[in-house]
Automatic annotation (TrEMBL):
Domain of life: Bacteria
UniProt binding sites for substrate: S9, H67, G143, F144, G145, G146, D177, G178, G179
Cofactor(s) needed: Fe(2+); a divalent metal cation; Mn(2+); Co(2+)
Coiled coil feature spans: none
GO terms under biological process: pentose catabolic process; pentose-phosphate shunt
Name under which the protein is recorded: Ribulose-phosphate 3-epimerase
Keywords: Carbohydrate metabolism, Cobalt, Isomerase, Manganese, Metal-binding, Zinc
EC number(s) on file: 5.1.3.1
Gene this protein is translated from: rpe
Biological pathway: Carbohydrate degradation
Length: 227
């Protein structure tokens, strides 16, 4: 059985309890902390900047999975990597010279990810796939936490997993983001996703640790049934 990584998204944290909640998930099975950066242009919402990444770096050793939902990401790669991003993911839709952007992320010392909006075809990353460490399939239109999972994501993840196998990439991270919860974690993991981002389904629950365990268990049990 392949490992399923959990990446709680701090977008749904109680910001006044940020440190406490990040420590809680870090000590109870989170593999990454997912940090959503929004600029009010690429997506209709605003969140954090490099200072947030720097602050998180001070309170946890867990790798920071930084998701840039911003225009002109090239202007900010260095700032986020110097702040402590372990994985830096840009949107295909925001990058004219995606190959150059990916090269630059690697040169700066981070893992490189590319994200696709729900309406963007997998074909747009076919050429760059061999150069990536992570592919992020959005299962909602990015911008907000707590939205409903778009069902077409399951088939897209299946096709993405086939493409990844075809280029022979071991330990590749196929991440899904948006509407992941106890119900959707199973089918999406069975389809081949191995990094599950979840915000609302973790931080807006009465018991954060239990919620994480339930998502993890759902993903694993579904894999067993499918095996
Ligand atoms: C959405 C963000 C997500 C968000 C997911 O634009 O990229 O990471 O936090 O939130 P949930 O899990 O609540 O759908
Ligand atoms: Zn995200």
């Amino acid at each position: 059985m392949k490992k399923i990584y959990l990446a709680p998204s701090i977008l749904s944290c109680d910001l006044l309890k940020l440190e406490e909640q990040v420590r809680l998930v870090a000590e109870n099975g989170a593999d990454f902390i997912h940090v959503d950066i929004m600029d009010g242009h690429f997506v209709p919402n605003l969140t954090f900047g490099p200072n947030m990444v720097k602050a998180l770096r001070r309170i946890t050793d867990i790798p920071l999975d930084v998701h840039l939902m911003i225009e002109r990401p090239d202007d900010y790669l260095q700032a986020y990597i110097e702040a402590g991003a372990y994985i830096l993911t840009v949107h295909q839709e925001a990058c004219t010279h995606l190959h150059r952007t990916v090269q630059r992320i690697h040169q700066l010392g981070a893992k490189a990810g590319v994200s696709l909006n729900p309406a963007t075809s997998l074909r747009t990353v076919e050429e760059i796939l061999p150069d990536l460490d992570l592919l992020l399939i959005m299962t909602v239109n990015p911008g907000f936490g707590g939205q409903a999972f778009i069902p077409g994501g399951v088939d897209k993840v299946k096709r993405a997993r086939k493409m990844i196998e075809a280029v022979g990439k071991e330990d590749f991270l196929l991440e899904v983001d948006g509407g992941i919860n106890e119900e959707t974690a199973g089918p999406i993991s069975a389809a081949g996703a191995n990094v599950l981002v979840a915000g609302n389904a973790i931080f807006n629950q009465p018991d954060i640790v239990q919620a994480m365990h339930n998502i993890h268990a759902a993903a694993r049990s579904y894999q067993t049934v499918q095996a």
